[in-house]
Amino acid sequence: MELRLVFAVLSLPVCSAHWCETRHGDRHSLWCASAVGNLPVVRQLIQEGAGLDDGDVWYKTPLIYAAETGQIQVLTLLLEKKAQIDATDCWGRTALMWAAGSGHFDAVELLTHHGADFDPWVLDDSHGGVPFWTTITDSPIRQWWMSQMTVSSLAVSTLGNFKTYLAVFTGALLSVLLVLGTRYLKGLPMKASIAKIENYLPVELNRKRGFSRGAQLLIGKARLPWVLGAALYIFRSVEVVTNLVAILGSGLMIVWWPCWLPFVIGGFLAPTLHKNYAVNLAKPILITAVKGPLSALLALLRTFLIGSVAAAVWRDYRSRHPDLGSSLQIAAPSTFWTGWINPEQAQAQVKMHSDWTQEPTQLQATLGRIFDFFVSSVLFLVALYATSLASYLLWFVVRRFFRKQPGAHQAGQLVEADSSFQEDMLGQILAALPEERSWPSEANPEVLWQPERFFDSMVVKLSLHSLAVVMDINTIFTMVSSQRYILSLVLTTILTQAFVKEILYGSPMKLSHAVRQSAQRGILREDLLKLLEDKASISVLSLVLTTYSFYFCVQAPFQAMALLFSIVLNVYAVTGFIFEQIDLDLARAGEDSLPRTGRALISL
After folding, report:
1. For residue 58, what is the domain's CATH number?
2. Is the distance from CB of 571 to CB of 367 less than 8 angstroms?
3. Alpha-carbon 298 to chain mean position
4. Do 140 and 464 contact (CB within 8 A), yes or no?
5. Among 68, 155, 331, 471, which lies 20 to 30 A Cα-Cα from 578?
């Protein structure tokens, strides 16, 4: 097909008139007779048995030629003879699209009157995959076309496509297979009836079992000053945006994924596989987090290296596409980075930088501003992340060489005092209810409702995590509406794993019981905390896919704003997980990691 298309383009004459008018040898073909409006010849050829739906080298049918040139009489005749009204050419354009793009409103009305498939949200592959309405130059047709672009029409066109259901149901089926396969490899029971489900006594009878990690989470928050905690949380947010949104999500827009993913994942995994590789692979997102001076240095070098590679690929792309607003490519010498360029990058660049028509509409201008804001914000946060790492390393060096370090005896006393503080507070938390006087004031859940700790509230945390799931579902809808079925399949597989696991091996009643006990206790119960951690792991992949789809799947401002909101929610989920696991030391929390006194308290 590609060779035929190249030959057809090279053979197309360059002139202002329609090409059929210059090819006298083809005057009596049905294609050319339809294009120039020669109605008697069209009738004669049809009577002689000419194929109504035969396509030429471009796969364009006689009906498409008549619509392109606005030949109403020929169009009417072909429709009366039952010509296929929704036939497409090699660019995926129908007769209706050719009529609209060529400025023939009467032909558009005739085709829609005869039931032509009309999708106002259709994409135009011949212009880099931008929304088709942006290629319409005739102002009345464009205004009419845009008036049909409603949310309901988008829902109808998306839900009426069987590929939508195929992608979603295939993703759900894959999630079932992944859950079953994971349990089988781990040696866990496959039947729900024999799966181990923890039974928790009422809080009044046992206030300790199942709340140890949640209690240590409160202790970590109580020990960390609010200002320092806020600064660490902001840094973790910037870190998540840099590693997941900028490097993985936005980097995939520039660099082809078979080249980019192994390179980036190797850059994160390589420095950490020499130790605790099992833990790193169990919670891979923690690999990306800075934990000390050495990891900060590695993160700074990694960011610089990955950024340099992305910049090299971008320069190579710019040498071939001097006009970012056009998908056309000029000849340029091949370099090492040429094979790394994402073949679909032109589509995103055209959408971000092209006015698409001579007079950009308000919708185009709004989309352009949203894209500019997003890209500028991401680049600013990457620069802030690199600056923060460099400042931290400089502070560490100065502190290391110019500040007196505590001796071994003094350091041992500090560790012993800290352990004693942890044991005492742990005992108070696990033995009391929030309203009782024995509850330590530093970790009282009522403190979490203060403005500065609003987002630490259990109610707010559960609500935002639930809202993130809803926005992920909206992201799947955005993907399928832009015909990105593979992306939607992958995100569906990722998102439905938690639901499948809960349906097959969990209990909705158990989950509601965990929420009630956690609310009564003022502490997140073990299984509820594990569920939130699983959601954070899902948010990692969802954040990358949502960022990638932001460049390729957005067709309207409301979709862009929805995806931005989804990105923010997923950043919140991942940031909270990293902050709790590393900065609040929850990764080592649990009965096995507690001091001896703490384990004794649990066993009471």
Report:
1. 1.25.40.20
2. no
3. 26
4. no
5. 471
Q: Can you tell me the distance from the alpha carbon of 144 to that of 118, in angstroms, rounded to the nearest whole number?
A: 12
Same domain, 239 and 138: no
Q: What is the pTM of this model?
A: 0.80
Asked whether residue 452 is assigned to any structural domain, the reply reads no
Which domain, by its residues, includes 75? 2-7+15-149
Is residue 466 in some structural domain? no
Q: What does the alpha-carbon distance between residue 38 and residue 45 come to, in Å, rounded to a whole number? A: 11
238 and 113 in one domain? no
The domain boundary, picked from 90, 120, 149, lies at: 149
Domain co-membership, 33 together with 133: yes
Q: What is the H or E stretch that residue 124 is in? A: strand 123-124
Q: What is the DSSP string of 298-332?
A: HHHHHHHHHHHHHHHHHHHHHHH-S-TT-------
Which residues, in sequence order, are bridge partners of residue 130? 124
Q: Of 404, 375, 318, nearest to 550 (Cα)?
A: 375
Tell me, what's the pLDDT at 1? 39
- Which distant-in-sequence residues (6+ apart) come within 8 Å of 430 by Cβ? 207, 208, 211, 212, 215, 601, 602
Overall domain count for the chain: 2
Instruction: Pick the last residue of a domain from 358, 386, 406.
Output: 406
Collect the ranges in the chain with pLDDT lower than 70: 1-28, 126-130, 188, 190-209, 272-284, 325-328, 351-364, 403-429, 431-457, 505-509, 587-604
Give per-residue pLDDT as tens, 86-120. 888 888 888 889 899 888 889 998 988 888 888 88
Say whether both 250 and 341 belong to one domain.
yes
What confidence score (pLDDT) does residue 491 get? 92
List C-alpha distances in Å: 529 to 515, 580, 586.
Answer: 10, 11, 11
| Residue 140: both structure tokens together | 């009345």
